[in-house]
Amino acid sequence: MANQTPRSTAKDSALRRLLPLMLPLLILTGCARQEPVNETLPILNQLREQQMAEQPQLQLQYQQAETQLPTDQEQQLHQFLGRKDPARIALISGPGLQTDMLESARMASVRLTALTRLLGARAIELEPRYDPMLAPNTLLIRILPNGESGSVTPAEAQ
To answer: For the whole model, what pTM was predicted?
Structure first.
């Protein structure tokens, strides 16, 4: 019996040394067999859609490669802003019809600059944005709450 004690102690000692190495391997093997669950993206999309539905907004369309809104859509924009009388709005431009992403972003920038000039006389804080996920030639006017942090205006920078 005296011989069994050292042998069992040697086995116990070997198991104690292997256990810290084997446990992570067993855990990783079990994790690798499970299907990854990614429910975050659908939840985020649902929250974004819900937030967009709660904020007053207007969606307009540009004609082909035009940088100015058609007259009827420009009137619609002014009527929308007149009814809502917002302090802050986001001007969100989608991509143009161009297949080149850089050219499409440039077209959106030109359109946003033209809109900023058009609405510059109003006492509204404008926040131009580019969203490549919007449909091509789409302009989204979203009224922002006064407390939402956004772009820095020259007055805030001083």
So the answer is: 0.59
